[in-house]
Design brief:
This protein is 84% helix and 0% strand. It is built from 19 helices and no strands.
Amino acid sequence: MPVEELRRRVVEGPIFSTLLWLSLPLIITQLVQVLYGLVDMFWLGKVGTAALSAPTPAWSLVTTLMALEFAIAIPSAALVSQYVGKRDWTSAKKVSNTSIILSVATGLLVSVLIIPFAHDLLSFLSSGHAVKEIENYTIGLLLFLPFLFLSMSIASILRALGDMWKIALLYGLTTVINLFLDPILIFGIGPIPSLGTLGAGLATGISMLLSGLFGLWVLKRHRFTPRIELDSDLVKKISHLGFPIFLSYFLKGSAIMATVKLFSFFGTAAIAAYGVVQKISRFSSYVAFGTSGATSTMVGQALGKGDKKRAERSLQTAVAFTFGAMLAISFLLGLFAGPIASLFSKDPEVVRLSAIGLWIYAPTMPFLGIVFPVSSALNAAGRTAISSLLGIGRFWLLRLPIAYALGKILNSAIGVFMGIGLANLITGLVALYFFLNTRWMRRIV
């Protein structure tokens, strides 16, 4: 669909049906990404508990590094969406180009700087548990980090344009490739040796590379072909809007690493259980991620057009739909927690902790159905500092102190899970204030 037609549908179509039309491919994308993570967990679980624990600390480190990319992608998407709302296609293409060049360069620089220190960082995170397996998996990811950043940048641009189905195709391709490569590189076949956790990391990295190249082709079809040039004024504007985002996601990633550290005090089984709960709980949050992306597009383009009332109604519709859907899904996850957890490990302790973690975590997930759409709307309106404070508060003021205290009091990983759940609940109530008071909505272009 031409970008002009995409814009017309976003800024003029019925709000609820437009929300569903934009959300559905993003929800599918989230399901695909859940499958992407579950594939690794499934195959590594067959290798052993130590291998199963590898993706959790590895991705906690990578998520922290991704803060730099979020600081580029999120403000770029806000600018692109508002320029599209204004029909200023030239400026939208300049932002797109600048975002991609910055993303690839940043990914390359981070990869080169971090790989030499990966062993020390991961040894600290895992408290000596399964360090070799974790390091192998992480190196496989870091080698392809520029392409992960590239894919994220392209997805944010497509989301700003309203072309959500191409995002689904982008991540669908990643998952299909990973599905194919994982067993081959983990266990070996023919002349290809068994690489274990390194193979799982490389499979993910190669899929990132190919999806990034596909994304460049999609942008070319939209006449958003990147050029090797930077607009210095846009770099400054993206940096200004992106700094709070960087701070938020860096502290979020650091908090996730710290959470892994808390679980590591209770052994390898606790780390593995946290990884299982994270992957499974995303089935509850995939609706929130999908509608949040749609909210960002609808609010951004409506504000760019100068239609604040439509921006407000879009956010209201997104929150109501997301909260209800996540409530239903979370109920099912809690109800079948035990059988689901047993699919990922034969270790009785991993299964027991995973099931308990889901029973604690699932009921609080619907409150993220308020947090995510509100945060996306704040970012689309250029209020990145407020959105960032919500994220920082959730992890550093709530999750870590409460999880640490309850873990210590109960002397169990169960206390850490309780802290995570309580942080979700309280942050949801804070986000409700910004949902009810929308004076913060504004145009930034």
